Amino acid sequence: MFESLFNKYPFFRTIPAILCMAIIFKLSSMTGDDLKDFPHVWDKLAHTCEYATLCGCFAMWWTRNEWSKRQWLRVLVVVGLTLAYGCTDEFHQRFVEGRSCDAMDLVADTIGGLIGGTVYALICKLLNKFDPVPPDSPKEEN
């Protein structure tokens, strides 16, 4: 559905990731008092879900045709991007009142990234199997 829009305006592929990073940054800016009613066990689940979504948004940077080539290398790239953002998020939390930098949050971020990247790769594989996209054609010069 969005593939034709993304092909026409490639910049739009980056917008979901930017919005997702902004939401994560806003949530990370909440103080410890703002989160006092949030159970600790749900914190790790929230990190996993947030970063699975972020990883899926990073994965949208490539077309489905590009995902059909070197799929698992692309999964590693998007998981690496997700982990890098997770590191900056944890660093940011060091400066927020009542929050701290936690290595277990990074583990949850990485697990979420692996889940998001793998699910995205599998969905692309299924979509390419049942609804093949024609190969990217070079633009004709007039």
How would you summarize the topology of this molecule?
Blueprint: H1 3-8, H2 15-28, H3 40-59, H4 64-67, H5 71-93, H6 103-130
Notable traits:
disordered C terminus; 142 residues; 6 helices; 0% strand
Compose a concise summary of this entry.
The chain contains 6 helices and no strands.
Can you walk through the features of this model?
Helix 2 packs antiparallel against helix 3 and helix 3 crosses helix 5. This protein starts with a helix and ends in a 12-residue tail after the last helix. Helices cover 67% and strands 0% of the residues. It is built from 6 helices and no strands. The longest helix has 28 residues, at 103-130. The chain has 142 residues and is an all-alpha fold. The model is unreliable at 137-142 (pLDDT under 50). It is elongated, with a radius of gyration of 18 Å.
Number of strands: 0
The major pleated sheet works out as:
none
**Uncertain stretches of 5 or more adjacent residues:** 137-142
Q: Spell the H/E element sequence.
A: HHHHHH
What percent of residues adopt helix (DSSP H or I)? 55-70%
Given helix and strand content, the structural type is mainly alpha
Radius of gyration (Å): 18 Å
Distance between the termini: 29 Å
Shape: elongated
Proportion in β-strands: under 5%
Roughly what is the average pLDDT, rounded to an integer? 86
Give the helix tally: 6
